[in-house]
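Running this now, will post back.
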Amino acid sequence: MARLLMVVTGADGLRLKDGTIRRTGFWAEEVVVPHQLFQAAGVAVDIATPGGVAAPLDPESLSPAYVAGGPAVIEQFKSYLASLEDLNHPQVLEELSEDGLDAYDAIFLPGGHGPLQDLAHSTALGRIIRHLQDAAKLVVALCHGPAGLLPALRPDGAWAYRGYRLTAFTNEEEAAVGLADKLPFLLETRIRELDGDFQAGRPWMPHVVTDRNLVTGQNPASSAGVAREALVRMSAAVSR
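Update: finished.
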């Protein structure tokens, strides 16, 4: 059986440029849809957060304005999240050892704006990503989840994903939600500064980019596509 480590933000607030705190957390669709697909395929999923804190849900991610399918889908998301005890009692990210990491076939980083607050600055996550990258394990990140790739720096300061094709929530999409000039940094811009080969798709449309052992998705609409691509990759790796 394949095993996957899902690293979820533990930040329920994001400090903006003006010093105010915007309520945030993980984005419901980006956890629920991939988790369902992984479980249905028989993948064992463990959840970890920085400090092992309960993973906070971004309340906007259950707003009718952001959930295609309306009230029925919102209720389904709520029910599924309530069934995931690991979200309330996750593993402590910082305590994961290299031996423990070797038991996983893949790591998955869902989004929400929370990762900009904690995962983007986590030296522990940077260590974990480098270890899995060097072991040629599958690394998957969605929407703002690629912020968790940022601290994966080599001893010489080079980014582990320098030159890789990848995507994430775009500057255009941040502008559309009114946050482009308020966030502490723009993820697309930071990835480009680190010499990532950023691939932007159409705003709000599914867009998945794969390069070597890295799979990334642009936005919540890419949740299913990212998970399905990850499953294809994991299946091929496990069968070897």
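The CA atoms of residues 34 and 76 lie 14 Å apart. More later if anyone needs it.
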